[in-house]
Design goal:
This protein is of the alpha+beta class. It is 31% helix and 30% strand.
Amino acid sequence: MTPAKSGTRRRILRGPRLRAFACARQEADGVIGTLTRRIQATCGDELSLLRRQMYSLAWQDIREGGVEGAATAMARKPSCVNHWVSVDVVCFAQPASIGEMPFMISVAMHGHPDRRSGEVYWEEADAWAQAVAGHEWFRVEPRGGLETLNGRVFHYALTEKAPAAQIIPVQMADNP
């Protein structure tokens, strides 16, 4: 233990403890978590603006006047891990039915015509969807995708997570 500059003591991890800590964090986060943090670090302001636009679309009363949905998009970005691949993110707001969130996200990854599909890390789309979700209040659920002429488009739904404090265990009628 060595004293920190603030006067508190902190533990320095070395050798096997450092490797064990790094392995545990990598397993917990995985590649998608690492990519999500990288996207949030490089595009944080744009992601924040996109979320605000998406929320404002959802809170407008789009049911009145016959509008079935609305969309907003982020400017095309280069892929974080794939050279010659670009990413488009589009968010949709639609009237929510009971128990469903009104948000959908589509992530399109476009490759250069000379780029082979097998060389692209398509799971990066999951990281972009997680980055758009932004925080622990929403869960990203894959809803399918399709292959296009020069890439793939992935669709996701954002569903609200119940905070642990709001989860109430259901008691069965048989068990008093």
